[in-house]
Design brief:
Elements: E1 11-19, E2 25-33, E3 45-51, E4 54-60, H1 73-87, E5 90-96, H2 105-113, E6 119-126, E7 131-136, E8 147-151, H3 158-168, E9 173-176, E10 185-190, E11 200-208, E12 224-225, H4 262-272, H5 282-300, H6 302-319, H7 335-357
Parallel strand pairs: 4-5, 5-8, 8-9, 9-12
Antiparallel strand pairs: 1-2, 3-4, 6-7, 6-11, 10-11
Helix pairs in contact: 2-3, 5-7
Domain Tail specific protease: 25-227
InterPro entries: ClpP/crotonase-like_dom_sf, Peptidase_S41A, Tail-specific_protease
Protein name: Tail specific protease domain-containing protein
Length: 360
């Protein structure tokens, strides 16, 4: 492998030897050109759904990524939203984090920053109780319309930080499984010997949201529960051996800049604090209506009801230790996304009616 690595755009000659059925061998050469590999299959994808006089954007983000070529999840989301806004009337956004197990913390903060003003995104606390506040200092939200974060039991780590922050500030509603994975621990991967076959991870602290809660064990609770295909299974940090307990720290909505000193603190007072994101309660007030509408749709949807019955059967199989589950146990229709879209449509209509009533 070392011989294959070199500068970009340089050539490499590979030789291949094949043993034929008659025992003889053949040998051939292949000339290749080295180029950076872009993992496009892991990058953001999106689709649009027409609604009223505009569209709903469904952003599917499976990880929080960044590389040396300047490709990042934050830039991809920003580019997608910019393109959609330019070509359509963007009415609402669904950020799909159901298959997102985490990634770069820095990207989680930057993605959160697209939807809020200045403010604390996440708090870290180590074993010595030292607190570190990780902030958004961009100033203005890139998008501030109706927003749904779609989650599942597989949503973990960095994706939980994003979902929790946007939920805490009240700018988004969480739709999905009752709770996410529940990984709020900070771990360092330690390699004592580069030639070793094994490594170990050391847990050094925990992450907390701006409200002071930790995602450890508890995960991010859904505002409106719409179960995924993973719902019946025991998935999450709580089911692992020796998980850290859940606890709380003081909320940081009013950022006191306790971890910043000197001239930098002066800059934050003049440039950061005046545009601090305030907690919004509007969507929380609308939750009873949104939940009622969602429950009504699900109860009248025969396909969704069939899906829920199959989930109950899966739970019984698991309890009876007979877990031979076939593909027929799962729906081929993305019922969770369909209902998330319906919830977002309700949010769009509610906001539109409020604007009309206010004469805006």
């Amino acid at each position: 492998m070392k011989k294959m690595k070199s500068k970009d755009s340089s050539e490499i000659l590979l030789g291949f030897k094949r043993i034929l059925d008659d025992g003889s061998t053949s040998f051939w050469k292949v000339k290749l050109e080295r180029e950076p590999i872009s993992m496009d299959d892991q990058r953001l994808t999106y689709s649009l759904e027409p609604f009223l006089n505009g569209v709903i954007a469904k952003l599917d983000l499976t990880s929080f990524y960044e590389n040396s070529n300047g490709i990042t999840s934050e830039k991809d989301i920003k580019k997608a939203l910019r393109t959609i806004k330019k070509e359509n009337n963007l009415l609402g956004v669904i950020l799909d984090l159901r298959e997102n197990a985490g990634g770069f913390l820095s990207q989680a903060i930057k993605v959160t920053a697209l939807f809020i003003k200045n403010g604390v995104v996440v708090i870290s606390k180590n074993s010595q109780d030292e607190m570190r506040y990780l902030r958004n200092i961009e100033g203005e939200a890139f998008y501030n319309g109706p927003l749904v974060i779609l989650t599942s039991k597989l949503s973990a780590s960095a994706s939980e930080i994003v979902a929790a922050a946007l939920q805490d500030y009240g700018v988004a509603l969480i739709v999905g499984d009752k709770t996410t994975f529940g990984k709020g621990s900070i771990q360092y991967q330690t390699i004592t010997d580069k030639s070793a076959d094994y490594f170990f991870k050391v847990t050094v602290g925990k992450y907390y949201t701006v409200s002071g809660k930790t995602t450890q064990i508890e995960g991010v609770q859904a505002d409106i529960v719409v179960p995924s295909e993973y719902s019946p299974f025991k998935i999450g940090e709580r089911y692992l051996k020796y998980p850290l307990k859940s606890d709380r720290v003081k909320p940081a909505y009013t950022d006191r800049l306790t971890d910043i000193n000197g001239k930098i603190k002066l800059w934050f007072r003049h440039n950061y604090l005046p545009n601090l994101q305030k907690k919004v309660n509007f969507w929380q007030k609308m939750l009873p209506t949104l939940r009622k509408n969602s429950q009504m749709r699900v109860s009248k949807d025969p396909i969704f009801q069939s899906f829920l019955k199959k989930q109950d059967q899966i739970k019984l199989k698991i309890k009876g230790e007979d877990i031979q589950i076939s593909a027929d146990d799962f729906s081929t229709v993305d019922l969770q996304m369909t209902e998330a879209s319906n919830i977002l449509k309700d949010m769009i209509v509610i906001e539109s009616d409020l604007r009309k009533a206010s004469g805006l």
